[in-house]
## 1
Amino acid sequence: MNWQKQLKELKYSHLERTAPAFFKASGGRTMKLKPYSDKTANGLTRCIIDFLTFSGWQAERITNTGRMIDRRRTYTDVLGRKKQIGGMEWAKGTGTAGTADLSATIAGRSVKIEVKIGRDRQSAAQTSYQKKIEASGGIYFIATNMQDFIEWFYLNFKTEIYEQRKSPPRFV
């Protein structure tokens, strides 16, 4: 089974469990779902979060961007013309430098997932962050596509976990 079908099946099962009335009213498994794609960083991030969440684990997107500060001022000169001075400034975020794109808890383990698409590579801050996570016993993974992520997931988190939890379906 390819990963798109697997993810679609997980979503149907999740909706059936968590919102049975909505699931039934929306047509059940014939319901039209937004297609999954791992061609962009946002698409792959959505795929991973949905896969983990629908499988019964916790996953969330982490953002460490700062914010824009508007330092522009408008005034009217002596001839009545409007003038603007100043500019926009970027304030640095308060999060940890190099933090991963996703944070998850799988089978009681802390997992950090960095999403890299195409020619995107880890920065020095991200490499340093990875070393800190791994040194403290956490798991760090760089996801470049959904198929590789799913294979990594099943290699590291054996299917026996699913037999203990009973809720998520098994796909191998």
## 2
Amino acid sequence: MWIDPAWGWIEPVGDTACVLHVGADSLASVARWLLLLNAELTIVEPAELATEYRNLAAVALRAADSFSP
């Protein structure tokens, strides 16, 4: 996985995991950007990032529920 240094850096942790250190203007931006990586994620910190993922999940669920064939 390649991460532009402007967004953050990757710290290897063992053979099968890494820690991605990132920053942005908002946690909402971080959450959206990380979803684009299409990778399994575990939030280490901050706890508020989990809230942003819950907000995104709610938006996605509303969009899915709005579909009517």
## 3
Amino acid sequence: MTDTETMLAEHACAKLITEYAALLDAGRWEDVAALYLTDGRMSRPTAPDDFIEGRDAILASFTARPPRISRHVCINIRVDVEGGHAATATSQILLFTAEAAADGGLPIQSPAPPMVGTYADRLVLTDSGWRFAERRGSLDFRPAPR
């Protein structure tokens, strides 16, 4: 790969990671699941060793969750392209949650501090663009006792 091809692949992978967060916050579960390979797998930061396997199971796991208001902030995205069709990436995530306001105005931010975690990703270039083969989440800090 040329330097330019590598930079384009790195950018596309970083864009996939930020798109994932935006789709999560929008509650667009089918679109989130579509970012995985058919046999892709994921684990949430709160359960890093509990993988959900397969696009259909990933979709089911999101649709089974109660509705929530969230904002995921992705930072420190690092991508390493391995040849032209595979890459690994890491990123840190800040998760803010909120409750709907009774007056219909801006949601009310949770008094709990944001969760801080890391994702380790394996990505594959497909005919549809870069997709997650695996997303493994983990927490960077233990939540404070309440």
